[in-house]
Amino acid sequence: MTEILYPVLILGLLSVALGIVLSLVNKYLTVEEDPRIDDIEKLLPLYNCGACGTPGCRAFAEAILSGEVKNLSRCKPGKADKHFNPILAYLKDHPNPDGTIVDVKI
Length: 106
Ligand code: SF4
What we know:
Number of domains: 2
Radius of gyration: 23 Å
Number of strands: 0
Number of helices: 4
Helix content: 55-70%
Bound molecules: iron/sulfur cluster
Largest sheet: none
CATH architecture of the largest domain: Orthogonal Bundle
Structural class: mainly alpha
Strand content: under 5%
């Protein structure tokens, strides 16, 4: 009986210890991401074609928020009415943490 009890106990304790370590790592090492990235990405065409010079739509959304992208028309498949105007309206309603509005145009 003990030959099965000890491995089960050891594996159980190891599981609990690793669970605690993982929860601590999750608590203290989590990187907070700007929630606007997800929202702007959803407003883009989502072709992930790379025609804008970034690896995909998410990277383009990040570049918009960082100020690296100044012209939304770098997204070649994007349309003003369908994509760019909603992004501009979104950015106007969701300023940076310091209150400034992302400087980008069509
Ligand atoms: S060009 Fe537009 S659709 Fe293509 S990856 Fe860039 S943002 Fe996405």
